[in-house]
Every structure is written in C-alpha cells, then in structure tokens.
Specification:
Shape: elongated
Order of helices and strands: HHHEEHEHEHEEEHEHEHEEH
Distance between the termini: 68 Å
Number of helices: 10
Number of strands: 11
CATH architecture of the largest domain: 3-Layer(aba) Sandwich
Helix content: 25-40%
Structural class: alpha/beta
CATH topology of the largest domain: D-Maltodextrin-Binding Protein, domain 2
Radius of gyration: 24 Å
Number of domains: 3
CATH superfamily of the largest domain: Periplasmic binding protein-like II
CATH class of the largest domain: Alpha Beta
Strand content: 15-25%
Largest sheet: 7 strands, mixed
Length: about 300
C-alpha cells in the first residue's frame, strides 16, 4: 500500500497554521490563535516551505511578511479552509479573524469608531491601535496591522495606499477672546494672543501661517499638548488660538463654542490615506473601508 500523500489531506493542519500566520502577521499571534506553541507553528511553516520548495514568509523582528507565493496560496485556500472549519463546528478565529486598524487617536475617536460601531455590533472583531503615522506604517509593512489611516503617504510598494479624504484646517478661538472673524484678519492682529500648539515646533500652525498669511511664524507657543482634542478643549476654554481640522470640531463650531477667525475658500488641507498591509486581508476589510469612506464623505 502506498504511503504517499497524494491528495494533500495529510497536510491540512499545516495549511491551517499557514492561514492563521498569514492572517495574524506574526508567528506568536498565530500560535495564540491556534493554541499551539510558537516553536510548533515555526516548525509547521518550515515544513510547508520544504514541501512547496520555496519560502512563504519573510521574517522580520516585528513579524512576518507573506511572499507573492503565499498571497496566491492564501487566496486559494482561505474560503475552503474557512468553510471546513464552519462545517465541523470549530470556533476558530481563523474563520472570524480580528481586523487590526491603526490611525491617529483623534481620527479614531471622532470618526472611525463611531462609524464602525454598527459593524462591531453585527459581529465585526476589531483591534484598534493609535499612534504616529510612521510607526503605524511600519506595523502595516510587517503585517502587524491590516489597515492604517495615515496622514503620511507611504513610500515604496511594500503596502497599498489610496486617498481617503482631505482634512481642512481652520484657525479658531473661543468667542470670549473677542476676535472678530474676518477674511482680512492679519497675523499682526493675533500677535498678542497665546498660541496653542500640537508640538513645540508648531507644525500645524506654521503651515497655516505660511499658507494663509504668507509669512513664516516665528513665535513660541503658550501651550503644547500632543492631542488635538485637548487643544480644542483649551481653545473652548479661552486659552488662545489654534489651528485644527474642521471635522474634529464640527460640534464646537455648530454650537458656537469655537469660531473660525479667518474664513477662506482656500484652507490648508492634508490628505489622509487608507493603507493596506501586504497580502490578502480579513473578509471584513471591505466592510471597514466602506464604513470609513462613508464617514468621511462629508469632509
């Protein structure tokens, strides 16, 4: 009797491990998903690579990245293996993977999470990471995050990116400051008003001054806090003037707690990009992208 593995069924546990690693973006995460030792997952992936005769993953310190051959195999195997898991009643996160989303804390809190709440209620499993764009893009490249909303366009071809929306920035203050809004407001008229900044080097304020006033901003901030929501709160409290994305302060502008000091048809804008990790994504990725695009359609 032949002992050959003609139909490949003997390798099903290995392919299940492969798919878990592919979706998780790291060996350790796949091991937790499957309830296996990390060394076992590593050994199974190595066995598959010997069987296929080519590498399936590139190894990095912060995770693994699928090769084009792995992308091809995952696309062919995902549906059959998920169907098999469902048929035998396995409660496996391989059949209902967690989608890992990254972005700036302010955007996540104000836009992304409210937009995704109905999907979560309907069964979406979501893990959210807030951070700086460069760190989040690195996580997408290594497969640690599935989708990233980034204020920085990623370089190279290691991840796929498409424009999501344009943020519009506005100069605002509390009405209590007594500054009359005007399309002709000059920088000189704000010389004695405290500046509220996101960082010591005034990245947002400098950009606004250059774009709208046509001059270089050479002042020190009165308040520095690396959270745009905190800047909005300080401005509402009358601390000074600041520049914020209009979506973040829509409620404050609507109810008059903040006013736009210099209305303009040409505000500074910043494009946000939706970045996808290498390889096939969770089946829920399209749902998340559609919800985010719908949420920003009015920006």
């Amino acid at each position: 009797m032949s002992d050959r593995n003609v139909d490949g069924l003997r390798d099903l546990p290995l392919w299940r491990t492969f798919l878990a690693a592919y979706r998780a973006g790291s060996v350790s995460a796949a091991a937790r998903t499957l309830g296996l030792a990390q060394s076992t997952v590593t050994a199974q992936l190595q066995a598959l690579e010997r069987s296929t005769g080519e590498p399936l993953f590139e190894r990095f310190a912060r995770g693994i990245r699928p090769t084009p051959r792995a992308d091809e195999l995952a696309a062919r195997l995902a549906a059959p293996l998920d169907a098999l898991a469902a048929a035998v009643g396995q409660d496996s996160t391989a059949a209902a993977p967690v989608l890992r989303l990254g972005g700036a804390a302010e955007f996540l809190a104000r836009v992304a999470l409210p937009a995704l709440a109905p999907a979560v209620a309907a069964g979406l499993r979501l893990s959210v990471t807030a951070g700086l764009a460069d760190d989040l893009l690195d996580a997408a490249r290594t497969g640690s995050l599935d989708l990233v909303v980034s204020a920085v366009r990623p370089r190279g071809r290691s991840v796929a990116a498409s424009a999501l929306c344009d943020e519009e920035f506005v100069l605002v203050a509390s009405p209590s400051r007594g500054i009359a809004p005007s399309a002709e407001l000059s920088a000189a008229e704000l010389a004695d008003i405290p500046l509220l900044a996101y960082a010591h080097d005034l990245p947002i304020l400098r950009r606004y001054w250059r774009h709208v006033f046509g001059i270089r901003l050479e002042r020190d901030p009165a308040l520095v806090v690396p959270d745009l929501r905190a800047l909005a709160a300080a401005a509402v409290g009358g601390a000074g003037v600041t520049v914020l994305p209009s979506y973040l302060i829509a409620d404050e502008l609507a109810d008059g707690r903040l006013i736009v000091l210099r209305p303009t048809d040409d505000p500074p804008i910043n494009t946000l990009f939706l970045v996808r990790r290498p390889g096939a994504l969770s089946p829920h990725a399209a749902t998340v992208e559609a919800a985010l695009r719908a949420a920003v359609s009015g920006f």
